């Protein structure tokens, strides 16, 4: 049996842009992706603190060191620039593996989206 656990979380980052005319996804600064252990095309859940929206999408690399958090395609309708998001990725593992697993949780500066 496998259970699903939080693998990583980027807590309280601000939306820097939206792009409705893109195929879809969320662009995340590659520095944040690396620190959180999130890889390109990985499925994530996005929680919008400002309006309560919750949705799933996949990650694409944003410009390294830019602080970029961009909602693309239909997800662009779920937030506006300046909204605060929590981005969560999950992993499936056995209960035995889960007992010793420690998720990577980041608390970047909300104004710059850079690691503190």
Plain-language structure description:
The protein is mostly beta strands and 116 residues long. The protein has one domain: Beta Barrel (Barwin-like endoglucanases). Helices cover 11% and strands 45% of the residues. The chain has 2 helices and 8 strands, in the order βββαββββαβ. The chain has helices at residues 30-36, 95-100; strands spanning 3-14, 17-19, 25-29, 43-48, 54-62, 69-72, 84-93, 104-106. Strands 2-6-3-5-4-7-1-8 form an 8-stranded mixed sheet. A hairpin with a 5-residue loop joins strand 4 and strand 5 (54-62). The chain is globular. The model has no long low-confidence stretch (mean pLDDT 97).
What's this, in brief?
By secondary structure, the chain is mainly beta.
CATH architecture: Beta Barrel
Shape by Cα distribution: globular
Q: Oligomeric state of the chains?
A: single chain
Q: In angstroms, what is the radius of gyration?
A: 14 Å
Indicate the CATH class: Mainly Beta
Number of domains: 1
Instruction: Report the sheet with the most strands, covering strand number, pairing sense and barrel closure.
Output: 8 strands, mixed
Helix content: 10-25%
Q: Average pLDDT across residues?
A: 97
Percent of residues in β-strands:
35-45%
- Give the strand order of the largest sheet, numbering strands 1, 2, ... along the chain: 2-6-3-5-4-7-1-8
Please give the number of β-strands.
Answer: 8
Task: Examine the coordinates and then state which fold CATH places here, giving the name of the CATH topology.
Answer: Barwin-like endoglucanases
Uncertain regions: pLDDT < 50 for 5+ in a row?
none
Taken in chain order, the helices and strands follow as EEEHEEEEHE
Number of helices: 2
Query: Could you tell me how far the N terminus lies from the C terminus, measured between alpha carbons in angstroms?
Result: 38 Å
Structural class by secondary-structure content: mainly beta
């Amino acid at each position: 049996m496998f259970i699903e656990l939080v693998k990583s979380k980027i807590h309280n980052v601000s939306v820097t842009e939206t792009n409705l005319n893109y195929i879809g996804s969320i662009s995340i600064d590659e520095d944040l992706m690396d620190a959180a252990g999130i890889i390109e095309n990985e499925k994530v859940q996005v929680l919008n603190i400002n309006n309560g929206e919750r949705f799933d999408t996949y990650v694409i690399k944003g410009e390294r060191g830019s602080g970029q958090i961009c909602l693309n395609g239909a997800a662009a309708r779920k937030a506006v620039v300046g909204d605060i998001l929590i981005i969560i990725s999950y992993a499936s593992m056995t209960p035995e593996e889960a007992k010793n697993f420690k998720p990577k949780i980041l608390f970047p500066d909300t104004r710059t989206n850079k690691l503190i």
